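I had to read the description of the data format several times before I understood it. For illustration, here is how one protein appears when written out as sequence plus structure tokens:
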Amino acid sequence: MIDLSTYKSKGDKKNSEFFEEYLPRIYQRRAESGLPDLVDQMAAIVVQVSHGDAIDYMAELAVMGPYRLIDARIGETHRVYLLQSRPEFPRMIVIEPLAATFTDEITRWNKMYPLSARKPNTRYVGEVYRATSVGDVRDALEPQNIRFVYDGDTENPFYCSEHLTFTFLSDFTYNRVGYVDVDLDDLSGLDIGDRITLTSAEQAKLDAAAQLQADHGIADKVLGTDHLATRILAGDREDAILEYLTMVPYYFWGAYNITEMNSSTNVTRHPGVDDDKKSPARVFTANNTPSFVNSFDNLPMPTEDFVRNFGRRMHHMAYAVQDGHVVDEKNVDYVVRQLSEMGTAFLAHVVGECKDEPNLKQIFSKSSPYSMLITEYVERCHGYEGFFTRDNVAALTEAAGADERYEHGHVFD
């Protein structure tokens, strides 16, 4: 465990006096409210896809990573699919509106931005954390001005049930935080609808995708989720981090300037896990200067451009790749080569080196046509304990920025 009273955050990103004052106060209030006893590790991540995309998205997941479907339900407004990797790692929940015309706050947010408007119901929703009682969590956090969804607040009842509750969309990240007080080995405890069975064609598509991954020899090399990275505006960086740390038992690990890309990478982690894949790190990336000030110097700003084009939202999910070799090829290079042969498109080549010293290698895929999320693959070599290298992040950010540009006047073509 980390002693939060003595821990010194890592990195070279200078925080404001406001941040430095309120970070320990939030830790203290969190402890006094009992939240660390009420909320534990991440239980699931939730992604909404557009009507008709769920099966294709789950097939994509089966090719690219470890998640496999284990349960499915149909509720009032959505189909809900539960996927699992290893039992000790968080589940994934994919929700899909029953109608293409479904509209809620996700739809309305997405339509505000030129490059998310084309898929208005597609969005990473947020994380769900294990809780002893969702009612007790609400009682602890509502006096701290954390708003929860109640019946009648949203068009999607998935966000408010007896054993599963979500916060409102964050003003800083447009993500939610959820809490669940029953096991997620199936969806029966959530009472969100009747169990459904896939058609033979749907099941065949998922089986074929999983078999394709196995045939290419990467099924045992792509492990669980390593981290989840949200992009936000420059002025929201500190508020977003402090808000998140109010709601979950994570700590501020540190922040580094990525000077070449005029941005910073800010990392929060769970202090009680021996493996980040059991409760993945949450990363917040923001420009160092807002766009209107940056215009004086015309520095690169792919992070701010992403937010202005897509809105505040999750940018990528990262999978950890098992450290090792296939003959004389590092596992991540092998995985990327095999995925490329299967049709997965990547933004650039693998960055980083893994020779005789601890280091890590990373790469971004192109964004998914179903989730709008980039998938990162990261291999930590020789027991590398750090979270990233600045050179790697700069190269990845530059590659993503080149792919996420918005050409004015062609939004509706």
Q: What stands out?
A: The first strand starts at residue 39 and ends at 48. The chain has eleven helices and 17 strands. Residues 408-413 have pLDDT under 50 and may be disordered. The radius of gyration is 20 Å.
